[in-house]
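Lab meeting notes turned into a lecture example. A postdoc, R.K., suggested we walk through two folding results consecutively so the class can see how the record format repeats. The first protein's sequence and structure tokens come next.
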Amino acid sequence: MVAKKLEFKNGQFVVYPTQGVGKVTRVEEQNIGGQKIHMIVIEFGQNNMILRVPLERAEISGLRPLVSARKMDEAIDSAKRAAGAKRMIWARRAAAYEESINSGDPMRLAEVVRDLQRRSAADTMTFSGRQLYMRALERMAQEFAALHKIDVESASDKIEEILGVPKEIDLNAAEEDGEEPFEEEK
């Protein structure tokens, strides 16, 4: 089996597994240790980072183009299914979730979102579970946003809407009947 050569163009969105979605700004040639090496320069706007990946190491590093819209829809559909079995202790499950998040694979990200999402407004999450959920959702939303040319926050909201995740309760919101929230006198 012959490995296919990945090609990247300026302006193309790509996924680097541990960082999420970035944009190829250029392919440059650098002289390192007397050898000329072609580097893919990727800019990650969400965290103001620039990454240089040697072209010959791109596939090994997991760098890949965005998935198709159909493949993203399949991942989101898989996140709608019932949560997986939770038979491991939390530390091991958290490590497995972390590995899935850093894989860059939309199906594995969807599994994390599926397993950790709230099913009803009454469900509570641990702090670490919430952090893992938010990171997995953000990685999915980054790719969804690039595919559909929308911002990441809108993509995140859209994914949660598709999944039927209940919205957070705003504890600072005023009462519906027109009463002002209670304020302590000074």
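The second example is placed directly after the first for contrast:
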Amino acid sequence: MTLNLLAAAGGAAPQNQFGFLEAMEQGGIIAWSIFGVLVIMSVGSFYILFTKLLEQQKVMNQYKNVHSGFWRANSIKEGAGKLEKNSAWRQLVDDAVNGEEQHSRMNDKLEAHDWLHGTLARSEASVNAKLAGGLPFLASVGATAPFVGLLGTVIGIYRALINIGLAGSASIDKVAGPVGEALIMTAIGLLVAVPAVLAYNWLQSRNKRIAEMLSGFSTDLLANINSGGSIKPAAMTAASTQQAGKAASTAPASAKATTGAAGASRTTTTSTSPTTGTTTSTTTTKR
């Protein structure tokens, strides 16, 4: 008997007819189509975010090898072997080497300089274009996702008005489903658009930082080639000067230590003769 009462109580429990799936089912194929478009936008946005983030981080990590290995080489060709293949920095160096070879075939020095500068500029532009790939999709999602959700909102409100007109009264059971569907579409549109806009701005700022690195590196390459290898980045020059200063400051310190040690081992003896009154000094050095 107790089981029968529990079963009757369970059967009498009200069912929730205003959930997400219920609202989408009431919306029909139009609601599901709009929801599918928003899901595709969201998945594509996060895919681009993570892939471009890994690509940017790889380029930034490779930049450390430029200062640690490339500029310490005796020539650009030797330094190119210390960079990773198919990297942005190796591409700049290879293009610079090719430009230098073409540089030697030109008679006008000014024209040769402009040619080399243009070669490096084209190489920078190709790297920046590759890093910017996929960002227009993020911008498009951030700009259009709220309106796609708004389309679902408009359709949901329109269906609610139709139900009110057919029923002749604005009862909650007639408008709750379509209005709930409208609010859900608005929320989903915002949830898709906001991460896309944030990801676009963040990736764009990181691309600008990488573009500054590429521009500085190409400028150093151009100066190094035109000077025959005598001009290197200021950071490398400062490091060399600092090492030379440390070596110079270490040498006098050693000399002073040696002199002090020698002076400490010297013994001076002074004696006065009682007969003649003559004073004699004798110095003995022990090694």
